[in-house]
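Build the 3D complex.
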Amino acid sequence: MESLGSIFERAKLERRRLLLTSLAGLGAAGMTGLAGRRAFGQDQPQLANSLRSLTNPYHASFAKGGEMFAQSVGAPYEVLVTEGNSEKGISDVRALLAKSGGNLALCIDPNDTPDTRVIVEACAKAGASVVTIWNKPADLHPWDFDPNYVAHISFDGAPYGKQMAETLIEKMGGSGGIVALGGIFNNTPAIERKQGLDEALAANPNVHLLDFQVADWLETKSFEITQAWLTRFGSDIKGIWAANDGMALGAIEALRAEGLAGSIPVTGIDGIRQAVDAVKSGEMVGTVDWDPIWVGGMGLSIAYHAHTKKIDIAKEPHLHREFYGTGVPITYKNVDEYIANYIDKTPTIDWNDLWGRVSGQIRAG
Amino acid sequence: MAASAIRLPPASRIERLRAFTPVIVLVVVFAVIGAIAPAFLSIDNLVRIMNASAIPLCLALGATFIILMGSIDLSVEGVVAMGAVLTALLVQNGANANDLGFLAIPLVLLMGAAFGFVNGVVHVKLQIPSFMVTLGMSFIAIGIATVMLAGERVRITDTTFRELALGRVLGIPMGVWVALAATLVAYVIQTRTRLGRWIFAVGGGEDILRLTSVPVGRVRILAFTLAGVFYGLGGILSAAQLGQGHALMGQGRLFTTITAVVVGGTSLMGGQGGVQNTLVGVLIVVGLANGMVLMGVPPYVQTGVQGVLIIAAVALAVDRSRARIIK
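Done.
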């Protein structure tokens, strides 16, 4: 459950680094590839999830979700790992298309936006069914490639940024000053989450934003900024909103250095394990889990349902073809329940409930 | 503040003034920010600036020795990440049963030294520019840290160990004392050991030095090893300060480190500057970052200001009369 949008966007900026970083992970990747079973001569289509790297918890859960679904229908399942390399991602998909003769249901988190079109075109040509996650050019739509491009799933940062701000404001008692830590400026998740914060502030005139700073998703930067804020605003700070969990944790450590951890409510987003623990201990008051098991499993399930003609995807409304999924908010109110349901046990998901977590059609642009 | 250990005999008045440029910049920066935002100079805030300077200082001390030789070390972020991850895994933590406490410190320093040693050996023996070697080593270190944790974060549960960052002596965080001790050690190495003097000599004119009996290659390897130890220390302090270790822990550290060394007046061409300059440089960079938040400078302007600062510092500090060719 490592941070999501933040990690992704940062990873984009650091393509070179990731490439090299991933060298060490190649061994693991190779093993996963070998573990997949062959699809020849079986009734079930080959299933596959393609993702960046098994070394981050988000994608590890993403892969696990796919496996859980594959087991539920008894189909062969394979994990393709791009290791941050678009070329590898595309050629792996092509190889699997050739091997399965197009009898493939694929759920892919494309390494980079331009890859999506190449992959979708290759799948359409081979007669495979593909669902894409997160990355897609704005002018490419699933209905452009009926029925092969089944759907695209993403998450909208705005409602969750807003929800966390509301949780914070509620904990503050509805009034006072807050400070906010944003992600890298031109990152889509950073912009959306900040937009949500602004909406919550507009609805709560008694709460004012003392300052907004950009900490580039990094806890080290957020640590230093929070320190400076303590000087500038001191006890006027009644709450800290952070656009991801890493920055929220950095802020908490800055508070801890002054003996203030737990006395000022802090919120994050992404639902990483430390943040959940911090919500449990009272140092944070909220975060949002994107539930990667659901994403990896349901993306595959939708592709599978379309591929096996259990649904006629071309007849589904656009809302079901290009939609925002639903995150799981974790706040000081439901944290025990969350831990019981999501951490102490793996949640059971109804893989046939294809549209249960659709929370809106993706906005254009 | 002395410009270098090797002093060119007839130093003009301007030359002597140039050596003090970083201190003057520091005083001006602090005075200007203090005038605009008086809270900047409050005791509380000065302690916070010191606290925020501790880790950058350790890193910049290591980088100083490398830059003094006219080389560059880009392995900072990797070794810091590796150091923080290793620290987190060796002290009592949420991922394994280790509980070495402060015994973890020498082990992590040794790891830093090992990375630095490899940097040095590859650079010297394979004759690869330090720029490439250290960049590669940084990636390797981050790669290893990623694999060790499978992308996870480890939380440090050893509260005694965390006192290294959180504890206070005379109202000043322990991390600051550690960094000051490191500065003292670095200063002694620079001024009182043969290695220190040779590092200056390598930076001042390696071509001539090679004609003497000075083991230039060994000096370079030792300097990189020494730098690695300081980065390891930075990693330990990072882990103590943030209470965790993960592979991206060093991110953003390289820019501050190199900026601090250069702003302090250590020449990128080598042979000029030193540990004392770096101390001033770190205070300028960290103080400015803190001050810009206090003054309410918009976030997108802040990075720009840092860029201007670097160019200005280099322009002020570089002794152009000695420069023959600028590449």
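The first strand of chain A starts at residue 46 and ends at 51.
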